[in-house]
Write a structure and sequence with these properties.
Number of strands: 4
Number of domains: 1
Radius of gyration: 14 Å
Strand content: 15-25%
Distance between the termini: 16 Å
Structural class: alpha+beta
Largest sheet: 4 strands, antiparallel
Number of helices: 4
Shape: globular
Strand order of the largest sheet: 1-2-3-4
Length: about 120
């Protein structure tokens, strides 16, 4: 949470969207910490080809993503716990692209933190 707050105070932005909504109104100071704490488990699941979950449990976002690897692809399902409904409810990505995106996010988060709170 400290790292996420430091990034927000330094002016760093983060945008997340998908499933028919290009902007999930993701708050860097709190929502980011809920994502970052779950990334190691997702990275491990993707690497081993097993299912994974990211739960965006913070108020206002309240949705979860399920990652189901199938060969070279990953089926990503989105379930909302608010009145917002994903459309489509399932998206498919190349597994290697998703793994690269996840690694790049972690690296960008770390380098942003070095700048924001050396």
């Amino acid at each position: 949470m400290y790292a996420s707050k430091a990034l927000e105070l330094s002016g760093h932005r983060f945008e997340i969207g998908g499933f028919g909504d290009p902007d999930w109104k993701f708050d860097v100071s709190y929502d980011m910490s809920t994502l970052v704490e779950q990334l190691p488990d997702l990275i491990e699941a993707l690497g081993s080809g097993t299912p994974g979950v990211i739960d965006f449990y913070s108020q206002g976002v309240e949705r979860s993503l399920t990652f189901s690897p199938a060969g070279d692809q990953v089926r990503i399902g989105c379930e909302s716990r608010t009145s917002w409904k994903p459309s489509p409810a399932v998206e498919v990505m190349e597994r290697s692209s998703l793994e690269a995106m996840t690694r790049d996010f972690c690296a960008t988060f770390a380098s942003g933190l070095v700048v924001a709170a050396p």
